[in-house]
Automatic annotation (TrEMBL), chain A:
Keywords: Cell membrane, Membrane, Transmembrane, Transmembrane helix. InterPro entries: CPA3_antiporter_subunitC, NUOK/Mnh_C1-like. The keyword Transmembrane helix applies. The keyword Magnesium does not apply. Residues 109-160 are annotated as: Disordered. Its main location: membrane. It holds the Pfam family Oxidored_q2. This is Multisubunit sodium/proton antiporter MrpC subunit. It is found in: Cell membrane. Belongs to the CPA3 antiporters (TC 2.A.63) subunit C family. It comes from Pseudonocardia halophobica. The lineage of its organism: Bacteria, Bacillati, Actinomycetota, Actinomycetes, Pseudonocardiales. One of its GO terms (cellular component) is plasma membrane.
UniProtKB/TrEMBL annotation, chain B:
One of its GO terms (cellular component) is plasma membrane. Pfam families: Proton_antipo_M. One of its GO terms (biological process) is ATP synthesis coupled electron transport. It comes from the Bacteria. Keywords: Cell membrane, Membrane, Transmembrane, Transmembrane helix. This is Na+/H+ antiporter subunit D. Residues 131-414 form the NADH:quinone oxidoreductase/Mrp antiporter transmembrane domain. GO terms for molecular function: NADH dehydrogenase (ubiquinone) activity. Belongs to the CPA3 antiporters (TC 2.A.63) subunit D family. InterPro entries: CPA3_Na-H_Antiporter_D, NADH_UbQ_OxRdtase, ND/Mrp_TM.
Amino acid sequence: MITINVTMAVVLAVLYSVGFYLLLQRSLMRILIGIVVLGHGANLLLQLAGGPPARAPVLGTALPEEFADPLPQALALTAIVITFALTTYLLALGYRSWVLTGRDEVQDDLEDRRVAERQRPEGSMEADAEGPDDEEDPGSAAASDRTDEPAEVSGSGAAR
Amino acid sequence: MSTLVTLPVLLPILGAALTVLAARSARTQRLIGIVVLAAVSVVAAVLLVAADRTGPVVAELGGWPAPVGIVLVADRLSALLLLISTVVTLAVLVYAIGQRISDYGRETASTTFHPIFLLLSTGVSLAYLTGDLFSLFVAFEIMLAASYVLITRRTNASRIRSGMTYVIISLTSSLLFLTTIALVYAATGTVNLADLAGRVAALPEGLRTLLSMLTIVTFGIKAAMVPLHFWLPDSYPNAPAPVTALFAGLLTKVGVYALLRTQTLVFPGTGPSTVLLVLAVLTMVVGALGALAQDDLNRLLSFLLVSHIGFMLFGLAVYDARGAGGTALYIVHHITVQATLFLVSGLITRRTGTVSIDAMGGLARRSPALAVLFAVPALTLAGIPPTSGFVAKLALLQAGATGGAATAVVAGFVVLASLLTLYAMVRVWVRVFWGTEKEPLPDPDPTDELVVGTARASRPMYAATVALVAVSTAIAVAAGPLSAITEQAGADLMARTPYIEAVLG
């Protein structure tokens, strides 16, 4: 069983906690950075799974006992390539989402709102506040909500 | 024989490369896709026969022997799931081709669809066959990366949100998987599944439980197990019908397969697992109740998909040969029927121009063929005798009844969830096919492939759906020999030795 030193344990703890914290944010950019940070944490952990630093293996410059374990390095290399590629894709997707919706925010699911509207008992406080025409057209009530409102595209976003 | 094991991975990835080269010719692309998937189906069938007669077929990649190199293993479970998955993929491809022909004409080639589709098939095959935890990660990544492209292809403002949700959740679960692999390697010094089986047993119990729980969470997200299911009903319904059918049929089931493999081979327990039993009940009940609240046909089917993941978890949780065999049979049945239902839903929404069940009605009079095509898989999903759903559920219930008091109670929930499924399906039937006839609505967005109101469905689309209904009927007809194989597969999983001996020699 491999154990790691305190410095690395602290670094890993910071990377994982920062990554998960950012993942829980509402802004897409922060989520994306969260994925990147979390990916670094996972790759570092994979790298450290091979044990403490040691001499280069295979080349014949060191004795077999002094070798570093090459397998986690190979695994980490593969994993880095995969996370890199997928991060790029996510970045492109985030940009596309910003172009299409004009906002950098993860939005609520419209259909979830609609189902919630339909299930709400009649005469409950929120239903009253939304107006009497909820029953006929639940979509309009949900669509008028702040997060679901279709924003004007690009102009204001580009200025930011 | 061992070269044969590599073909289900090599053929689709080579086919993907060829379809990129043939980007100009629609006909060549379609031909390559169909030929490759048909060939893989044949190979999978041969592997299944070989694995059933002579034990697991093993290929050592690059000639490196087992704990050092990567191995591909086809035992009864892998070969069976590979076979049914490839057959379903082939049918979905035919449907997708039909849909493209009826929407865009015969001659337009697609630069992304065919290569990505075959890559997804590569990932699924590798996930079933690999005998190595890290290759399983790579397989998941190939499969998921392809699915990211398929779900966000030709996206628009309303669909991009669901695509983002899907990609972010999947990436998070992949990073958790990577973390699990790192911890497993740090603890044992190997990533070979057969080698892990021996080495994990030597670990302290606390550490073993931690690693086991991490794999349950990781694969639980991929399998859409409650309470990790929220992403599925949000994202799947927003993809075109063939893509949703493929995802619903295969992707979650690969998660269940990974769970089944790791929980039996690497983290074996003794007797029914309380954690998994509780999760199974939650998944079955929450999924079925969620389905009852829906108005969107595809979301309703997605919630039923979540509910039926619970059935498979239940078979695993019973933790004996019968339970594991029942799960294997249930996966085979469910891959077929869930894909069929989403394809039929695609045909229905093409007619109605809407996914809202409230806005449909009287469809049985206008298209009786569609009514029959919906009724058969719907009853199969609910498990009415003599369909394949009944056979699979019977296997699970038998396992539950003989597994002890706790599993017998959970078996009651299986019956309850089946009844709720039936109720949901009957509601759909009454609202969509009976009642006053409603005029089809105009296409809400003609630029995407999601809902194409009043458009004609071409013959390949119906042919593919009918073929899948026939496959699910064939499963019911061949229930005897099939359940003999799955029972043996369950016994193999529990005994562990056939797999370990085949790999480590």
